[in-house]
Amino acid sequence: MKLTLRVWRQRHAEAPGAMATYEVDGISPDMSFLEMLDTLNEELTLAGDDPVAFDHDCREGICGACSLVINGDAHGPERTTTCQLHMRSFSDGDTIDIEPWRASAFPVVKDLVVDRSSFDRIIQSGGYIAAATGTAPDAHATPVPKPDADFAFEHAECIGCGACVAACPNGSAMLFTSAKVNHLNVLPQGAPERETRVLDMVAQMDEEGFGGCTLAGECATVCPKGIPLPSITAMNKEWLRATRKIRR
Known about the structure:
Blueprint: E1 3-9, E2 18-24, H1 33-46, E3 69-70, E4 73-74, E5 95-99, E6 108-110, E7 113-114, H2 117-126, H3 146-156, H4 163-167, H5 174-185, H6 194-207, H7 218-222, H8 230-247
Helix pairs in contact: 2-5, 2-6, 3-5, 5-6, 5-8, 6-8
């Protein structure tokens, strides 16, 4: 395939950015989107130009590093991570716009790379459990009901890619935060910090400058791991429960 790429280029956080147009040819439909960008960067490097900076790591849909807005959609036209998006989703002659996540809490570092350390600080504020040191406990020492285990596992699948924030018209991080709260709060191991966890993580989320949630639902629509929209409702219930308990 021959494609026209319109890529956001920005030398650093303080520099003005703009879309730059490139032509790439010989793109196989079996390439991943990131492999296509590798091809572009090889051509730019051979021509003596600065390659396009973009985040990537495992390229297996696990790490959540590949944060790109493709033709206006977080991670592109398929509900998957960018590294698992293949060029067969596009056609010969297409023009593809490639941009970084757009959110005030995700400042651009360079080109398509954004700083998502705000997510790290949300997790640091409460995404942990208290556990005694020493030898590992015996398997099944703490029984967990099957519905609770399934609920926790569903939310633990969140990879922190930030697509939910990029897709939200308000730039809200509610789906991400709710996933991190819910998968621990439902388990007995997370009970000691159940109230402080949700209060601290929501407070940190607000401090980071993410927008408010209006349940537009775009976050759950683009989530590559299928974190459900009712996750936000579950976190809201946890937050109300915590505020009432602490007031007593």
